[in-house]
Write a structure and sequence with these properties.
This protein is of the alpha/beta class. It folds into two domains: about 60 residues; about 180 residues, Vaccinia Virus protein VP39 (Rossmann fold, 3-Layer(aba) Sandwich). The protein is built from ten helices and seven strands. The structure holds S-adenosylmethionine (SAM). S-adenosylmethionine binds next to helix 5.
Length: about 270
């Protein structure tokens, strides 16, 4: 048995961070499996002589249509996976995370909350930039993002040599923190995943921010998901918040045409001071 000090150094050397992918591999595999199933059904019922007449025509059209749509969706998911890949050529996720983290400035000894931390990427990026502060990542984990979990976040923090983070399970719609706990709050691409009144989720996050604290919340703030965000900015200003701004990021971290095909149109950073 190696002494602890030696074990932790060798662990850091051998561990590599793995932030996974915003497009879960499991979803691509499921789409691929469904497409393959319908391709088989198309071949069996649409091309061979097992059925005949009108029924054969109907099955031919239906199974072919589902196969083509399934193949297109699978290809789209695969292209997203490739663009988001942390180690790929485009590295879009890394650019967004680093871009959002740039907006989070913490005082020495300060505390930051990252809502919906996933695999810990933003929590760790903020912690690296603010080594004298603490950053807490919360996430509900599981569900569609099955590969994200707390041990993964902790492994990633260790692999990056970061010691000022902690991670815990939590719900963005009802945070387990008292009012005015944090010096900064941040989040990336989380609230749009949650059905319901998304402006109220923003207010729930801001509830935990201290007076004078800052926020940098990145999401797809489209009208269909959030309603009128300019009115929300006005509401925050009326509540006494300062320097509240919605900064479009579809020409900052991505190209406009990428935002369109990736369904990220409306991406923006909501920043300001309480
Ligand atoms: C697209 S991922 C983004 C993860 C991370 N913020 C990042 O930028 O890598 C969305 C995350 O939101 C989390 N999430 C969704 N609904 C949530 C909720 N109600 N409370 C907490 N986390 C939630 C998911 O578990 C997932 O980790």
């Amino acid at each position: 048995m190696k002494p602890d000090s030696i074990r932790s150094v060798s662990d850091v050397i051998h561990e590599r961070s793995d932030y996974k992918n915003w497009m879960p591999k499991g979803m691509i595999c499921t789409a691929l499996a469904i497409t393959a199933l319908f391709l088989i059904l198309f071949i069996v019922f649409g091309l061979t002589g097992i059925v005949s007449g009108a029924l054969k025509t109907v099955l031919f059209v239906v199974f072919l249509a589902v196969t083509v749509i399934g193949a297109a969706v699978t290809l789209w998911m695969f292209l997203l996976y490739r663009a988001f890949d942390y180690n790929g050529k485009r590295q879009m996720s890394r650019q967004i995370i680093e871009g959002v983290a740039e907006y989070v400035k913490l005082p020495d000894g300060g505390k930051c909350l990252d809502v919906g931390c996933g695999s810990g990427a933003l929590t760790i990026a903020v912690a690296k930039r603010n080594p004298k502060a603490r950053v807490i990542g919360i996430d509900r984990w599981g569900k569609e993002y099955a590969s994200y979990n707390k041990p993964l976040c902790e492994r990633n923090a260790r692999a990056e040599g970061v010691t000022n983070t902690s991670f815990q399970k939590g719900d963005a719609t009802k945070l387990d923190f008292a009012d005015e706990t944090f010096d900064a709050v941040t989040s990336n691409y989380v609230y749009h995943n949650i059905p319901g009144d998304r402006q109220s989720y923003l207010l729930e996050t801001l509830r935990t921010l201290k007076k004078g604290g800052t926020f940098a919340l990145h999401d797809i703030f489209s009208r269909s998901r959030y309603g009128d965000m300019q009115a929300f900015v006005g509401k925050l200003l009326d509540m006494g918040y300062e320097k509240v701004e919605l900064i479009e990021t579809t020409d900052k971290y991505m190209k406009k045409h990428e935002a369109v095909w990736m369904e990220l149109s409306g991406s923006a950073l909501l920043v300001g001071k309480k």
